[in-house]
Amino acid sequence: EVQLVESGGGLVQPGRSLRLSCTASGFIFGDYAMSWVRQAPGKGLEWVGFIRSKASGGTTDYAASVKGRFIISRDDSKTIAYLQMNSLKTEDTAVYYCARDGPWYDYWGQGTLVTVSS
Amino acid sequence: QSVLTQPPSVSAAPGQKVTISCSGSSSNIGNNYVFWYQQFPGTAPKLLIYENNKRPSGIPDRFSGSKSGTSATLGITGLQTGDEADYYCGSWDRSLSAVVFGGGTKLTVL
Q: What percent of chain A is predicted at pLDDT more than 90?
């Protein structure tokens, strides 16, 4: 059974950093790209970015709103995808989901809430 | 303002059919696949339709997708109260090099 579990969310002050993890199981993690999607309270879905599989170069793409501040990485040996969030802003407050990207998002994690507030 | 445009809400009676539109451009829908997701409050989105009109295993054939030019449509027949949810379309945008979503449509089954 495919499972994605996000962790690492919480309350953080503006300007600080936070790292989210997405632990995967039930599939060959290294064969898939992994994406991050967020949803601000009461708002719609917003794509954050994704990381390709190593076979596809392991490169990343990001939404303009987070480019230069967020970094997505992966550890295929641990089957974990990471979202490093730096220079956080209040508008980054959202539930952050990871999703298996195949290239459609067929499996999602349960989400982890990040609140950026002083 | 979302890159893809969806109506904020639609409604219909149980047993009826409803369609949800998703309008984009040649940068996204016009030249890339469309995906549809269903989301219930407080839960993660669920894939309903991929590659414009394909249903993942387990999705009933009451749900259908179509695409024409730079627009796509999600159709739901035989509406049930359990279909009340938010629905999002998505596609890759080659100009933005980004996945773009519609703003979401809230379905109410009266």
A: 96
Helix (H) or strand (E) holding B98: strand B98-101
User: B37–A63: do the CB atoms touch at under 8 Å?
Assistant: no
Displacement of CA A61 from its chain's centroid (Å): 12
Residues A36, A98: Cα–Cα separation, whole Å: 4
The C-alpha atoms of residue B92 and residue B100 are separated, in whole angstroms, by 6
For B18-44, give one letter per residue: b (16+ CB within 10 A) or e: bebbbbbbebbbeebbbbbbbbeeeeb
Q: Does A2 touch chain B (CB under 8 A)?
A: no
Q: Does residue B74 have a pLDDT over 90?
A: yes
On the question of pLDDT at B1 being above 90, the answer is no
Separation CA A41–CA A93 (nearest Å):
8
For B27-78, the DSSP string reads: TTGGGS-EEEEEE-TTS--EEEEBTTTB--TT--TTEEEEEETTEEEEEE-S
Contact flag B44-A50 (C-beta cutoff 8 Å)? no
* DSSP at A5: E
Q: Is the pLDDT of residue A103 over 90?
A: no
CA distance A57 to A59: 5
pLDDT 10s digits, A21-65? 999 999 999 999 999 999 999 999 999 999 999 999 999 999 999
Inter-chain residue contact B98 with A97, CB threshold 8 Å: no
pLDDT confidence bin for A102, thresholds 50/70/90: confident
